[in-house]
Design brief:
Helix content is about 40%, strand content about 15%. The protein is built from 15 helices and 14 strands. The protein has a six-stranded parallel sheet, sandwiched between helices. α10 crosses α13 (about 320-325). It starts with 14 loop residues before the first strand and ends with a helix. Mean pLDDT is about 90; it is low at about 1-10 and about 355-365.
Amino acid sequence: MKSRKLVEPRSGPHRILIISDAWLPQVNGVVRTLSTVAGELAAMGHEVEVIGPDRFRTLPCPTYPDIRLSLLPRRRLVRLIESFAPDALHISTEGPLGIAARAWALRRGKPFTTAFHTRFPEYVQARIGLPTGPLYAWLRRFHNAGVGVMVATASLREDLTARGFRHVRAWSRGVDLELFRPEPREQWDLPRPVFLYVGRVAVEKNIGAFLDLDLPGSKVVVGGGPQLASLKRKYPGVHFTGPRHGAPLARAYAGADVFVFPSLTDTFGLVILEALACGTPVAAYPVTGPRDVLAEADGVVGALDTDLRAAAMRALDADRAACRAHAERFSWRACAESFVINLAPFPPEGLPKVPVGSLLECADIKA
C-alpha cells in the first residue's frame, strides 16, 4: 500500500487544545500533569487552552463525589472547540468531555491524540466488582480512533500493546525540583522511623496494604478522599494529616524516612518523583510506575518487593543523595516537549477530510 506523508508541524506557536474531564479544582496526578504541562507549553510560545468540567453543569461521580462529571456537554463543547480554532487536539480522558470531543473530531475528520492516565477498569472492579475485560474493550475502541495514545511508562506501553491498543507513544513525567527539596524537613513529633503515604485516600490506592504492615516507628498518611473517615476509625494509631499542598507537602516528604507506595494500579505515580526529589527513598510493589521510575537509578533509591514490608525495611538503607540525583533526571520541560512531538497537527484548511484509518497509517510511518 502506498504510504502518505504526515503533515509536518507548523512553524511558530501552535494553538493546542486539551480536553480533560479531570481539571481544576480537582487534585490528582492527571490535573497536576496537565496544568504543569500547559504552563510549560505557554512558556515555550504555544497558545494553550484546557477545557474541563469547570465550564459546564456537572453532577458528582458515583462513589466519588469529589469528582464532577460534565452533564450533556456536547453542544457547548463544540462551540468552545470551534471558537478556539486549534491547530492540534489532545483528548486527555475518557469521560463525558472526552467522548464528546472524540465524536466531534471524527465527524470533522480531524486527527487527535489521547492519553492513558488511569486504569479505570481496575478502579471500577475495586469499587463495584465489574470485570475488567469489557471495560478494556471499550477503552481500546476509544483510544484506537486517535492517531496516538500517550503513556508514561514502558511497562504500560507493553501492557496496552498486548491488549490491542495501537500507536502507543512515550510521554514521561517531571517533578518541580525547586519546590520538592531535601530541606526544610518536617520535624514529626513521632517515633522514628516515619513511613509516609501521600495521595488520594481511596480504595483503588490500596492504602490498607500499607497500614496493615507491622513496621517499627510511625505511619503517616497525607491526603484526602472518600476513604479517609473509615481509615481513621480503623487505624487509630496512624497519623492522618489531611491534604497538604506546596511547601507543607514538600516538608512532609523530606521529613519521612521512607515513602511507601502501595498502589497496584497507578500508571505512573507522580508522588514517587516528589518523594525522591525530597531525598526520601521509595518502597513499593514491583508494578507499573515504581518499577519504571526506579529502574535506572544510580545507587539505591528504594526497594521493590511483592512483600511490601520487606521493601519498606530495605528502603531504610537507601542513599538519600542518590534519591535526589535520580529525581533530577525528570524535567517538566522535557515532558512538555515530548507532548508536542506526539501531537498530530490539523491539516491546513481547504484540504479534503482524511479518513482516520489513513491518519493511523501515517502515524505508523512517522513512528
